[in-house]
Amino acid sequence: MSSPTIRHISDTARWAAVYRARETERKNALFRDPFARRLAGERGEQIANATPFHEKHSWSWVTRTYLFDSIIREQVAQGADMVVNLAAGLDARPYRMQLPPSLKWVEVDFPEILAYKEELLKAENPACMLERVRADLSDGEIRRSLLRRLASETTKVLVITEGLLIYLRAEEVSALAEDLKRFAAFKRWVLDIASPGLLRMLQKNTHQQFASEVPPLQFAPADGPAFFARYEWNPIEVHSMLKTAAGLKRLTFAMRLLALLPENPNNSGSRPWSGVCLLASQ
User: Fold this and answer.
1) Count of H helices and E strands in the chain?
2) DSSP class per residue in 125-157
């Protein structure tokens, strides 16, 4: 038997970087990430080429990046003075986006993936203040200690969890939501979310690619973005990935037809749905 394509959770960061690199190389690119190809490396290409389902739906990876970029840009313009990227992976936004030098950007992830990124980007200069924190976010005490320290340094934080929550159990997402709510400085939270119907589709087409050490895809609340309201995080923006991709002209004709159908993010049932949401602390 061949070995699994995704051997460690850090492989998913290389996987995501491939799609940013490919978008960057398009003439009509929605964003530019000149570091993505370097960060993805050959391993990233191997993973992407071995996952035909995701290759077919590469528009979703690109749309997610586009939406996160747009929300981050808007929130920084509205006064966010710190961005905390939990499970930052190989994200290079502090280097590739136009950001005020006074902004503090904090990347949190496992030591190995941050060391890999640090080495590849050591000759580059970030646009803003950048701090990297090596930490296992699954450890509640470590997570809360870090959040407490960051909250003491500022007053208006934007939290990013891009591509993270789907790997967590519902109780783990709840704990994270509660921990963020503890500190008044955490004002906004941008995340991506999938419906139960999409989760089943992803599990069917991805599960066999994951090694046993890699967390399975599992978080997809039946009530969608409304899940977070019970923890006093109010969804103030909900962007459908499919409808956004249609507007950006990144879909096939058949997918564009699907995008015309009405959506209910808080009650998708068995229908595949995904979105990027901006939450506000109540």
Assistant:
1) 11, 7
2) --SSEEEEEE--TT-HHHHHHHHHHHHTT-S-E
Residue 23 backbone phi and psi in degrees, to 5: -65, -40
Distance between terminal CA atoms of the chain? 51
Inside any domain, residue 29: no
- CATH number where 216 lies: 3.40.50.150
Confidence band, pLDDT 50/70/90 cuts, at residue 81: very high
Q: Is residue 1 part of a domain?
A: no
pLDDT 10s digits, 229-261: 999 999 999 999 999 999 999 999 999 999 999
Give residue 260's domain range: 58-281
- String of DSSP letters for 172-216: HHHHHHHHHHTSTTEEEEEEEEE-HHHHHHHHHHHGGGB-TTSPP
| pTM score | 0.96
Q: Is residue 237, in this structure, part of any structural domain at all?
A: yes
